[in-house]
Write a structure and sequence with these properties.
Blueprint (H helix, E strand, L loop, with lengths): L1 E9 L2 E7 L9 H8 L9 E6 L6 E7 L9 H13 L6 E6 L2 E8 L2 E6 L6 E2 L4 E4 L3 E6 L8 H9 L10 E8 L2 E8 L4 E3 L3 H13 L8 E6 L2 E10 L2 E10 L1 E9 L1
Parallel strand pairs: 2-3, 4-5, 10-11, 12-14
Antiparallel strand pairs: 1-2, 1-17, 3-4, 5-6, 6-7, 7-16, 8-9, 9-10, 11-12, 12-13, 14-15, 15-16
């Protein structure tokens, strides 16, 4: 079977995206894992299928690079919005369906903004925080993040008693004079990635709750792969009108036989 694909990246978080509106593409977990492999396949943090959905511009089906279907991917959502524009499905605005429900996104020049679902609660774990921004995230403040063992410490938390079955992403953050700096260990990839959109969102909400965001309604976040901004409304510990904003760029396209 020959598959046409495009590759996009958002702050270094990279994705294989396939137009599956005809419903002809059926991939096994093993095939997805091979396609995402950086040595034996195309190479990506995840793979997405763009499919039809009644009442929406499209449906996004997201798989982690381990081949398993996953929850919301923030940067992936912004990238598939750009992909949908390239197919002529949308112009500047999209209304689409993802794993955690419906979303809206807006393209403005080089930036793609994604409207996230409300977050009602941030759980204090004692030394770290847990919340769900479409995907589960642990957020922990650390010092000297540039030299921190993100892989080792992230892996410990992800495989701890509470999270070992369902998994969680783990974000380590440090306040800077421009906002916050973040590094993320992603479940499904089981390694550090250059950026994570739902993780950036989770970190910004934790920073806002602590009074460490850039302002009362916005937080600038520096990831290893680039800079993103999260706009938000803080309603005494719950959050609404949350937007993840940043670049989403086409990398290349091709065909592969599997």
């Amino acid at each position: 079977m020959q598959i046409s694909f495009q590759k996009f990246q958002g702050c270094g978080n990279d994705f294989i995206i396939i137009d599956n509106r005809k419903g002809e593409i059926k991939l096994s977990n093993q095939q997805i894992e091979i396609l995402c492999d950086r040595h034996f396949g195309i190479g990506a943090d995840g793979l997405m299928l763009l499919e039809n959905a009644s009442g929406y511009d499209f449906k996004m089906v997201y798989y982690n690079s381990d081949g398993n279907i996953s929850s919301l991917c923030g940067n992936g959502s912004r990238c598939i919005t750009r992909f949908a524009q390239s197919l002529g499905i949308i112009k500047e605005k999209a209304h689409f369906l993802a794993a955690d429900g419906e979303h809206h996104s807006i393209i403005t020049g080089e930036e793609v903004a994604l409207h996230m679902n409300n977050v009602e609660k941030i759980e204090d774990l004692g030394g770290s925080f847990f919340l769900n921004t479409g995907s589960p995230h642990v957020v922990k403040w650390v010092e000297n993040l540039e030299n921190y063992d993100v892989y080792g410490e992230g892996r410990k938390i992800r495989n701890s008693e509470r999270f070992k079955n369902g998994g969680t992403n783990v974000n380590f953050i440090q306040q800077t004079d421009r906002g916050i700096f973040i590094r993320t260990y992603e479940r499904g990839v089981e390694n550090e990635t250059l950026a994570c959109g739902t993780g950036v969102t989770a970190a910004a909400l934790v920073a806002a709750q602590a009074g460490k965001a850039t302002s009362s309604n916005s937080c600038k976040v520096q990831a290893l792969g680039g800079n993103l901004t999260v706009d938000l409304k803080n309603n005494n510990g719950s959050f609404s009108d949350v937007w993840l904003k940043g670049p989403a760029e086409f990398v290349f396209e091709g065909k592969i036989t599997i």
